[in-house]
Amino acid sequence: MESPWAPLRGRVFRMLWIAVLAGNVGTWMQTVGAQWLVVEEPDAATWTSLVQTVTMLPVLLLALPAGAIADVLDRRRLLMGVQTGLLLVGALLTVLTALDRMPPALLLFFTFLLGVGQALTLPSWQAVIPEVVPRDELPAASALGAVNTNLARSAGPAVAGLLVAHIGPAAVFALNAISYGVFALALLAWRRPPKKGPSHPERFGPAVRAGGRFVRYAPAVRRLLIRVALFVLPGSVVWGLLPVVARQELGLGAGGYGILLAALGVGAVAGALLMPRIRRVMSANRLIVVAGLIYAGALLVVALVPYEIAVAAVLVLAGAAWMTLVSRMNATMQLLLPNWVRARGFGIYQVVFAGAQALGALVWGQVAEVTGLPVTFVAAAVVMLLGTATVPWLPVHEHDDADRSPAVYWAEPHIMLEPHLEEGPVLVSAVYRVHDEKSADFVAAMDAVRLTRLRTGATRWGLFRDGEDPVRYVEVYQVPTWEDHLRQHEGRLTGSDEEVENRAVAFAEGPAEVTHLLPTDKPH
Questions:
Q1: Contact 322/268 with Cβ under 8 angstroms?
Q2: Burial code of 267-295, b = ≥16 C-beta within 10 A, e = fewer?
Q3: What is the chain's percent helix, strand, coil content, to nearest 5?
Q4: Quick one: which of 181, 302, 410, 430 has the most CB atoms within 10 Å?
């Protein structure tokens, strides 16, 4: 049986995991402190949901650019710089709160700045995980990431509740600032081995566009993102409105609110420990259905049963459902993304996740102001059930056995001209000879080749048949620049892409004759 703790045997992963745990504890303490600071304000439901929204909004706006930066720059140095900046912001927030100079609007501004730091951190951290654990331990590492988050969710709110009740929010903000320093020190201790990459560093703008193209032409990734959004959008009602439920519906103080969040965390940790068993006996799509039904049931209990014990009990189940589903989707994303675009892919994942959470928190906050908390939670449960019902039409495909390792199998282009790296567009043609009895199979196989070309840099693709010579087929695709095409030669293609191409070439008479066509105008 696969051990859920296996990745922690590695020193680097263990060290970083502990540092991230400290950061996550600080983040949850920060959230509790910020929400409790505004819970007594007029329109408390709006203010508390806005805290959740401005925390997630930077991820929505910046995760894809942050992913591009993380794929282009050294991820360790980037993370160290971001944590140092967060330490300074957290220290200033602490001082102003201690001096009673923190009105709600300014609190939202500082929360937004901390969210910017999280937006820059998340894609880099997710992309680092496959560097420090073996591929067969990635599902366990992903589950441990969820354990990390939910241990923090259990401990952070409980500690924050005690500190807010006895000292005040400034103490919570101070510990959060210290947690950023802990993460920075752990990164300083990690000696990341040098990574051999393309001969020319990728520029920011093209890197962002390349990441978007990859996801656009990766159907399995797109389907996974849709499923995440359908779950998180209604599920975010808990994270946005639970402090208001604690105060207004259950009459609890900061400590009681911490207990409710701890119940979510306990359920999530329990779910993480069961993940290896769940993975063996339950497909991803069945898990989506089971988690959706459990979470919807929990929302109905929160809406209709105004007793602290009952709410805490179902929050344990909700935490387990949330963790198991998010962890499974996260692990699947790790397996679907090749290294060259991993941070950008996770940037887009975070955009979808944070966008659904931010939009959901904002919408449910407004619905609660108009209709009240019970109706809001019932409506969220209905939306969750409707999303779960779409699984037969929008299933997730995991592709656990796909080879995402780099595969440099194209011959080096030998051309007489010396194009500038930014020269383009470049038109590449490949001529195949295919007999009639194999033509249908060849054309079908080339449709998968089309996706590999478009995922790795091409902006247009076509397959044509020679009218004068019917056995002659010409594949034509266009890439924006000569640099983009060289990157296809230097590591953007994977072992799975090579398999796809070999299946198509098997129907032809030998390998294709490749030609590179360059623009006649010189670049300005």
A1: yes
A2: bbbbbbeebbebbeebebbebbebbbebb
A3: 75, 5, 20
A4: 302
**Res 279: pLDDT:** 79
Single-letter residue type at 262: A
Rg (CA), the chain: 25
Parallel, antiparallel, or unpaired: how do β-strands 472-479 and 426-433 relate?
antiparallel
DSSP state of 488: I
CA 190 to chain centre: 23
Q: What secondary structure does DSSP assign to 137-186, as a single string?
A: GHHHHHHHHHHHHHHHHHHHHHHHHHHHHHT-HHHHHHHHHHHHHHHHHH
- Tokens 């924050």 belong to which residue? 160
Name the β-bridge partners of 452: none
**pTM across the whole model:** 0.76
Sequence-distant (≥ 6) Cβ neighbours of residue 513 within 8 angstroms: 430, 431
**In the structure encoding, which two tokens stand for residue 230, read together?**
């359908």
d(Cα 62, Cα 343) in Å, to the nearest integer?
12
Q: CA-CA distance, 60 to 49, in Å (whole number)?
A: 16
Tens-place pLDDT, residues 38-59: 766 666 667 777 776 777 778 7
Tokens of 70: 């993380």
Beta bridge partners of 514: 430
Distance of CA 168 to CAs 103, 151, 173, Å?
A: 15, 23, 9
Residue 277 has pLDDT above 50, yes or no: yes
**At residue 2, does pLDDT exceed 60?**
no
Q: Please, are residues 435 and 471 in contact by the beta-carbon 8 Å criterion?
A: yes
Which tokens hold the place of 350?
């975070």
What mean pLDDT is predicted for residues 143-152?
A: 68
Q: What is the pLDDT of residue 503?
A: 93
Supply the pLDDT for residue 1. Answer: 47
Residue 134 in this model has a pLDDT that exceeds 50: yes
Return d(Cα 174, Cα 396) in angstroms, integer: 42
- CA triplet 435, 436, 442: central angle to 5 degrees? 75
Residue located via tokens 């959740």: 52
Angstrom CA distances, 296 to 231, 239, 385, 386, stand at 10, 14, 7, 10
Higher pLDDT, 102 or 306: 306
Helix (H/G/I), strand (E/B), else coil: 191: coil
Tokens encoding 317 = 């189940």
Cβ burial of 378 (10 Å; 0-12, 13-18, 19+) is middle
